[in-house]
Amino acid sequence: MLDIQKIRADFPILNQKVNGKPLVYFDNGATSQKPQVVIDAISKYYQEINANIHRGVHTLSQLATDAYEIARGKVQNHINAKHAHEVLFTSGTTFGINLVANGFASILKPGDEVIVSHLEHHSNIVPWQMLCEKTGATLKVIPMNEEGELVMTEYDKLLSEKTKIVAVNHISNALGTINPIKYMIDKAHEVGAAILIDGAQSVPHLKPDVQALDCDFYAFSGHKMCGPTGTGILYGKEAWLNKLPPYQGGGEMIKEVSFEKTTYAELPHKFEAGTPHIAGGIVLGTAIDYMNSVGFENIQKQELELLAYATERLSEIEGLRIYGTSKNKTSVISFNIEGIHPYDIGSIIDKLGIAVRTGHHCAQPIMNFFGIPGTIRASFSFYNTKEEIDALVDAVKKAQLMLS
Ligand code: PMP
């Protein structure tokens, strides 16, 4: 059992008033809050070991390099990658997906197919559309149903020897649906296609095991899992990372440079051009340690309790519709109230101290499916409480009264 008050004390930002009311932070899907250990680790890096990495012989540079590589090892252990050099530091999920999509430009031919799903965030749609435009490949889309689940029989039909890569999220940011990615990975491999998993919304809730999943790529962001913004990871199987061309050219990613020819560095450096977010990478390791100290079983238990409680309490409100009703979902509730624009509810409840996301959540195809401009999305983290959900329900009721 988690001692929630003790956990909340780890997050200084939670202990404040916003618009004169105690802050209720339910926008965890957009970014999580940061525990004190993470905030402290950032200052400690700049106070004690700040230096550029992988290039200096001096002591600070070595200390910073060691700390950065230790963090890479922590990520490797966390996601159970076979090799540390399969773990690339990036600026976030978006960067990781673009890196892979850009690399596939050297592989795809006209007539090849790329599969995404109706449930994707724009950052797992647009890079693939750009890839298709560049190469003459065709984009195929796995449809979703009214519950907000992907239709696996349709996925099976889309797969063929033309499919070169499938890109799908582990968990939908807009609806919270957990996709059957193990099935999808195995099916993609049956036709010889690669598969990238967008893990942006899964890593805050679970520990992915990339070897057990057998995915080819797994991309995620640090900032949604208690780490700093501007940090992220792209896991790629060694064979794929060796096959793909570098994404960006520059310092750090080369073996030798001359005007006639440049040769590239070994993994992971081939994909890590330029000075990275050194403090960010190191502190992502701290964030992972923190989450593991809370424990993913505890995190899931708390979040599922909050999801069940919030679903029940919000369902009391007349005219409220929840989008995304799969039994397989994480602690996200996307909803609307009949006749009221989501922005109006969001703005009023903000005045009552409650932070939710309103809009299309960078997932316009999902909104189009339901024929709505957007939703109100409350996304819960392990540091949230049932009392905060009560405050949300009261606030939404007040807003509804004011607006109808
Ligand atoms: N995919 C999903 C499912 C997301 O939720 C997000 C962030 N909202 C992204 C990709 C993009 O992540 P980032 O902005 O950190 O690159």
From TrEMBL:
It catalyses: (sulfur carrier)-H + L-cysteine = (sulfur carrier)-SH + L-alanine. Keywords: Pyridoxal phosphate, Transferase. GO terms for biological process: cysteine metabolic process. Its cofactor is pyridoxal 5'-phosphate. Residues 24-392 form the Aminotransferase class V domain. Belongs to the class-V pyridoxal-phosphate-dependent aminotransferase family. Csd subfamily. This is Cysteine desulfurase. It comes from Flavobacterium commune.
